[in-house]
Amino acid sequence: MLKYAYYPGCVSQGACRELYLSTTALADALGIGLIELKKAACCGSGVYKENSQLLEDTVNARNIALAEALNLPLLTHCSTCQGVIGHVDERLKNAQKNDPDYFEQVSIFLEKEHCFPYRGTTEVKHLLWVLIADYGLEKLKKKVTKKLIDLNCAAFYGCYLLRTQDHFPYDNRFQPESLENVFRTLGATPVYYDGRTLCCGWTLASYATKESFQMAGAHLKEAIEAGADCLVTPCPLCHLNLDSRQPEVEKVIGYKLNLPVLHLSQLVALALGINPTKLGLNRHVVSVKSVLKKLDFQ
Fold first, then answer.
1. CATH number at residue 55
2. Global pTM exceeds 0.90
């Protein structure tokens, strides 16, 4: 049985609660054990290091140490969390060998707060990598009870999943195919477009809102023109900018979009025949009724 220390992150426990619901439902259906790290802290979403890299490293060393205490890999379903925590893990493992003074600084802070020590003995894995590398697509294919035939899915990878970590054995960061391979496994048809590996604009939204929405709108419009029935993303922050803000994006670009945006866990769970309500699909700003109708969900 596959088992992981589950790091749900902030967004899935708040604005994207449906991600939390669908991840746990999917794990149950696949027989994957999740031990939730309820004492974990926010990864900082890349903001901590703007003030202090030491702060980012210490906070996330603590998060990783919680998983190490269970002797389990840390699983996240957020590309941003994967990028931040995974990069910290890489940096600290390097510091263990090449910068012992810095590593000692982090260790001292952890000890002062009575935290588990960071040992550098585990891995940080996104749900997408778990499905591909650990569970396996052939095994996943056998679990499919409702093939997503005639559903055209456009991937939206986002920034952090592809470009943050140096160690990247699961895909080609410049020409990724991992999401598209999952789509094919589920019976869906991948839709390709240039924006699938670009930034959604989320990080700009607080201070350059118009530019952020123009970026999101360009990707959504391009996916629609390429024939997508829906967009699928492994990142809840991308989901927020592409789904919850889509009505605002439409006003900025002067174009009606109405493109459903699904979390990766929701799409896979649908192919396993899990009830859409259990997956929180009723929580989306852009209705997913067109997708459910195409898949003949009642």
1. 1.20.1050.140
2. yes
